[in-house]
Amino acid sequence: MRLVRTALTIAGSDSGGGAGIEADLKTFTAFGVHGLVAITSVTAQNTQTVTAIHDIPPEVVSEQIRVVAEDIGVDAAKTGMLSNAEIIKAVAKTVKNYDFPLVVDPVMIAKSGAPLLREDAVDALIKYILPLATLVTPNRFEAEKLTGMEIRNVNDAKLAAKKIAEETGAKAVIVKGGHLEGKEAIDVLYHNGAYKLYRAPKVDGCTHGTGCSFSAAITANLAKGLSLEDAVSVAKEFITLGISTGHKIGHGHCPVNQSAWIEIPAEKWRIYEELTRAVREFERINPIKLIPEVGTNFVYALPFPYARTKEDVAGVKGRIVRVGNEVRAVGSVEFGASDHLARAILTFMRFYPKYRSAINVRYSEEIVELAKEQGFTVSFYDRREEPIEVKEKEGATIPWGIEVAVKRINKRPDVIYHLGDIGKEPMILIFGRNPREVLDKLRLLI
Ligand SMILES: Nc1ncnc2c1ncn2[C@@H]1O[C@H](COP(=O)(O)OP(=O)(O)OP(=O)(O)O)[C@@H](O)[C@H]1O
Ligand SMILES: Cc1ncc(COP(=O)(O)O)c(N)n1
What region holds the Pyridoxamine kinase/Phosphomethylpyrimidine kinase domain (predicted)? Predict the structure, then answer.
């Protein structure tokens, strides 16, 4: 028996790696599904434009489907850019020979505005492909084209989803809300005579390849045996994360980040292990004199572009404190466990993204002097110079202070200190790329 699930994408290639089969394969990988491909068309494309389209002969498209289906087996498939009526007919004829679920993303126009389906092929799509669909995933404009209706809101989307299902014989339809007005991206699923809404906050980010990646995520999860409703739920979470964490590459619409889905959990585990080890080492060093009244924290943030809020920064729950003659971590390493130091590292990372770890220790003039003698770059901020509007804003002091200290010198600081204020203990912060580097610097100060 084959243990790994497989998903097939029948779609066009995007040389920019943002949409099409490239997006589909990355998405399949993110879900641990083995990806198979049948390329329909090769596009010369970047984030701004499509400059050339070379369609693959229909019999070659069919043959790609046949060979993988017969040798490897297909657990679920999707279609993307089908380009012309001949390819559509060939794909329909071939997929009919198999009984895998088929997700149809009725791709018509690229984000950049280029047509990806010939005008005269829309009828063929409706006639030959949609009746075979387990699910059709039109966006607002595609749903308008398929129904002839105008879609402005969720109610219109509901009517359109039902109309497409009833008129084409598709088993289910989801009208996507990425292009509808409003603060939320609401997708409307019509399946078995009932509606289900999928909601997510509309995020500012990278949207090239959203439709491809969303339908590929549904396909991967159908291949893994999830119900249609559950597969859509996971895909919705996946696409929202992918849009918000997209790398801003190119000069047009930047692409969805499919790897965030696996990279973030993998990085979190690595961070947890490294920081836990470093905290144990810190306890072993037992630097009693370095522990401030408020305790020490030791933090390690997710890499760029994933470090955004304190929940993306690991720290020690309850901090590290003095217990008699010993230095002890109160709780274990957790994401979201630090507030102050998390804000400090997030600000530092805006200037030096590779410097993801920090520790705070008791202030003393000797340590600042020792740091300078060791050749560390030292900077500071003065809480008494904090502007009133910053003082009044909850949680704004530390980001302000770190920014002031970083900008004070034109070199990356290893150490930043402040002398405190009324009711605020003075403090020294040590920065490094990782907890090991922070500990190495700290050792030189003992
Ligand atoms: N800015 C956004 N924030 C959150 N979710 C979004 C955003 N834009 C689109 N989505 C979601 O992404 C998925 C794809 O929807 P969209 O309407 O963008 O598809 P599409 O237009 O077919 O994409 P493409 O243009 O890549 O083909 C849907 O779940 C949609 O709700
Ligand atoms: C080969 C191919 N397939 C699909 C899309 C649609 O994606 P988008 O609308 O995000 O550009 C594309 N641009 N290129």
Answer: 14-257
Cα 124 to Cα 139: distance, rounded to the nearest angstrom: 19
Q: Residues 148-168: pLDDT tens digits? A: 999 999 999 999 999 999 999
Written as one letter, the residue type at 159 is L
Q: Which CATH number fits domain 263-443: 3.40.50.720, 3.40.225.10, 3.40.50.2300, 3.90.660.10?
A: 3.40.225.10
Q: Would the CB of 210 count as within 6 Å of ligand 1?
A: yes
Residue with CA closest to ligand 2 atom 13: 110
Answer yes or no: is pLDDT of 1 > 80: no
- Tens of pLDDT, residue by residue over 77-92, are 999 999 999 999 999 9
* 6-257 maps to CATH 3.40.30.10: no
Residues carrying CATH 3.40.1190.20, the chain: 6-257
- Kindly give the distance from the C-alpha atom of residue 218 to the centroid of ligand 1, in angstroms, as a whole number: 14
Answer left, alpha or beta for residue 415, where phi above 0 means left and psi between -120 and 50 means alpha.
beta
Q: Buried b / exposed e across 125-163, counting CB within 10 Å, b at 16+?
A: bbebbbebbbbbbbbbebbbbbbeeebeebebbbbbbbb
- What pLDDT sits at residue 314? 98
pTM for the whole thing?
Answer: 0.93
- % of the chain at pLDDT higher than 70: 100
ipTM: 0.94
* 3-state class (DSSP) for residue 421: strand
CATH 3.40.225.10 occupies which residues in the chain?
263-443
Tokens of 49: 């434009």
How many angstroms separate the alpha carbon of residue 253 from the centre of ligand 2?
A: 11
Q: Provide the pLDDT for residue 426.
A: 95
pLDDT, tens digit (0-9, with 9 covering 90-100), for 208-230: 999 999 999 999 999 999 999 99
* Nearest protein Cα to ligand 1, atom 16: 178
Determine if residue 57 is left, alpha or beta; phi over 0 gives left, psi from -120 to 50 gives alpha, anything else beta: beta
CA-based nearest residue to 30, from 182, 211, 178, 220: 220
Is residue 207 part of the annotated active site? The answer reads yes
Mean pLDDT of the chain: 96
The answer to whether 309 is a known catalytic residue is: no
From CA 136, how far away is CA 351, in angstroms rounded?
A: 45
